[in-house]
Amino acid sequence: MSEETPNQPQLPPISAIDRVTTAEFDNWFEYPVRVQPHHTDYGGIVWHGTYLTWMEEARVECLRSIGIDFADLVALGCDLPVVELSVRYHRSLQLGMMAVIKTRMAEVTGVRINWDYKIVSPDEQQLYLTAQVTLVALDRERGKIMRQLPPTFKAALAKITTSN
Fold first, then answer.
1. Are strands 78-79 and 112-120 parallel, antiparallel or unpaired?
2. Which of 18, 26, 41, 139 does the annotation list as catalytic?
3. Looking at residue 86, what is its pLDDT?
């Protein structure tokens, strides 16, 4: 967990987030970012929604690193909308700071794909955010959840799944 000052209110435990923050971190895909002016509010603090954008960018690049281009999924008629999102903000990032978005696929159950995230300083001494995102495979043409993942997609995902 993050180090919090005594004056900060304590958030109640959130099971999905606590599971992420207490897990052994290995097999992470790393996506570095630098905080730009358009990522921040008027005070130079990263706007909370920016972290979600970075998480999606890291996930898309992680998939690309194993040979899955999102455009190819779309061509297969498959989309991966977010159906569940849990985020814990530990510490703010500010204009000009560097961070590393770390992501890994936690598990695939049927057509549900769970991803873990943590955003840390480049030296990993500061923890800024932990999160978990659940995606589902959606048939774009019918607008319905698929019964199973496309076989080529499922085989590629097996390369990065941390638990089967």
1. unpaired
2. 41
3. 98
Evaluate the CA torsion angle 23, 49, 5, 121 in order and state its sign: positive
In this predicted structure, the answer to whether residue 162 has a pLDDT above a threshold of 70 is no
DSSP-derived letter for residue 5 is: -
How far is residue 73's CA from residue 79's CA, in Å, rounded to a whole number?
Answer: 7
What is the CA angle 18-31-63, rounded to 5?
Answer: 90
Q: Is the pTM of this model over 0.70?
A: yes
Catalytic site includes residue 18: no
**Dihedral over Cα of 35, 120, 62, 47: its sign:** negative
Dist. CA 130–CA 17, nearest whole Å:
7
pLDDT in tens, 45-97: 999 999 999 999 999 999 999 888 888 888 888 999 999 999 999 999 999 99
What does the chain come to in residues? 164
